Amino acid sequence: MFLPLPMFLPLPMFLPSLIGGQVAGFDIVSRPELYARLHEKLVRSYVLDALLDEAHPAKPVANGPEIAGAFIASLESAREDVFPSVGYGQDHRYHAVGLTGSVLVHGERLIHGAFLRLEGQDAGMAHGHLSSLCRRRAFRQR
């Protein structure tokens, strides 16, 4: 069962990223003070990948909220696998054509989630310090 992420999305701890007019991914963090500590690292991760992404040149996007909303809606078709976490809680992993993601849940509470768009050969069904967007995508495909 897919976690009801839209109930978390109005919070300031939600960071979607659009690169070249497409969603690159998004992160969601459970607590404002944790998000404040991670915000710069998360933004830097997405910005560095945007600068290195020659296939999707930067361009202004007027309909960013609609693009992000469509990406989030596409998560409902994702396959979910749940595993015990290495530490506390459960690791929910999501896989669908063109996207991958994971959410750490402890005591029915979302702790951190990250969802990323996949491209090229990676866009098929994915198999299972803050890393770059490219490294984060690769990690979630294991």
Euclidean distance between termini CA atoms: 21 Å
The Rg value, from CA coordinates, equals 14 Å
Q: What strand order characterises the main sheet? A: 1-2-6-5-4-3
Strand content: 25-35%
Mean pLDDT: 76
Structural class: alpha+beta
Described by the principal axes of the CA atoms, the overall outline is: globular
Helix content: 25-40%
Order of helices and strands: EEHHEEEEH
The low-confidence parts are 1-12, 125-130
Describe the main β-sheet briefly. Answer: 6 strands, antiparallel
- Number of self-contained structural domains: 1
Number of helices: 3
Total beta-strand segments: 6
Task: Outline the fold blueprint.
Elements lengths: L13 E6 L2 E8 L2 H21 L11 H11 L4 E6 L5 E7 L2 E8 L2 E9 L15 H8 L2
Antiparallel strand pairs: 1-2, 2-6, 3-4, 4-5, 5-6
Please give a handful of descriptors for the protein shown.
142 residues, disordered N terminus, 3 helices, 6 strands, alpha+beta
